[in-house]
Write a structure and sequence with these properties.
Blueprint: H1 17-20, E1 24-25, E2 27-32, E3 38-43, E4 46-51, E5 54-61, H2 65-73, E6 75-80, H3 86-91, H4 102-106, E7 110-111, E8 120-121, E9 126-136, E10 148-160, E11 165-166, E12 169-170, H5 172-175, E13 178-180, E14 186-188
Antiparallel strand pairs: 1-13, 2-3, 2-6, 4-5, 5-10, 6-9, 7-8, 9-10, 11-12, 13-14
Length: 208
C-alpha cells in the first residue's frame, strides 16, 4: 500500500506513522518553574543529537508545562524510562494543572540534582541534567509553524545507579530501557547483540 500524507487517506483504523518510526526512546522530562512548580512528563519525541557536545532534545505537542518550565528556567532533566517504571511513567502523563506535581500523582520520589534546580526521579537508574541551549517551533513545507515546541539541552551532569553497570558498561538487560512504539504499545529492551562497524569501504569484513 501507499498513501500521500497530505490527504492521509491510509484507510487503516489508526494512523501508522508512529508505528513505523519505532521504537522511540522516551524522554521522561522533569522541570522546575521559577515559582517552584515541579513537572514530570514523558515524551516519545525525544533523542540524543550529539555526543560532543552532549545534546538531547524533546518535542512537545503544544506548549505544555515541560516545555514552558524548561524554557522559563533554562533547565530540565531527562530521566531514563524503564520497564519496571512503565506504569508510573504513564501516570505522570496525566494532564495535571500547573502546581500539581506528577511525582506525587505517580508515587515517585524527587531527588535533588547537582547542577540544575529541577529534581530527578529517584527511582530511575539514570538521569541527564541539562541546560537549555535553544528552543524553536518547527515549520511545515509551506512554512507554516507547527503546534510543536522543540527544546534542546546540553547535558551538564549524568547520574547512573551502579546497579545497572557490568564490567564498566551499562547492561541493558539490567537497565531495561522502555521505548515507545505505535498506538498504545511500549517495549522493553531484552535482546541485545553487538555488531561492529565495517572497516573496509566495501563492507567486506569477514565478521559482518
Amino acid at each position: 500500500m501507499f498513501y500521500a500524507t497530505d490527504a492521509n487517506d491510509h484507510g487503516l483504523p489508526h494512523d501508522p506513522f508512529k508505528a513505523i518510526v519505532a521504537p522511540r526512546p522516551i524522554g521522561w522530562i522533569s522541570t522546575r518553574a521559577q515559582d517552584g512548580s515541579v513537572n514530570l512528563s514523558p515524551y516519545s519525541y525525544f533523542n540524543a543529537l550529539s555526543d560532543d557536545p552532549k545534546l538531547v532534545m524533546f518535542s512537545s505537542s503544544g506548549f505544555k508545562h515541560s516545555a514552558e518550565f524548561a524554557i522559563e528556567s533554562g533547565e530540565f532533566v531527562a530521566n531514563l524510562a524503564t520497564g519496571p517504571l512503565a506504569r508510573a511513567l504513564v501516570k505522570s502523563s496525566a494532564p495535571a494543572e500547573r502546581g500539581v506535581s506528577e511525582f506525587a500523582l505517580a508515587g515517585l520520589t524527587e531527588a535533588a540534582c547537582r547542577l540544575v534546580k529541577a529534581p530527578r526521579v529517584a527511582e530511575s537508574p539514570a538521569a541527564l541534567e541539562c541546560r537549555v541551549t535553544e528552543h524553536f517551533v518547527p515549520k511545515s513545507l509551506s512554512g507554516e509553524p507547527s503546534a510543536n515546541h522543540v527544546v534542546i539541552g546540553q547535558v551538564v551532569g549524568i547520574h547512573i545507579d551502579e546497579a545497572i553497570l557490568r564490567d564498566g558498561m551499562i547492561d541493558m538487560a539490567l537497565a531495561q530501557p522502555l521505548s515507545r512504539l505505535g498506538y498504545l504499545d511500549y517495549a522493553v529492551t531484552e535482546s541485545v547483540f553487538p555488531l561492529r562497524r565495517p572497516r573496509t569501504k566495501d563492507a567486506s569484513d569477514p565478521w559482518l
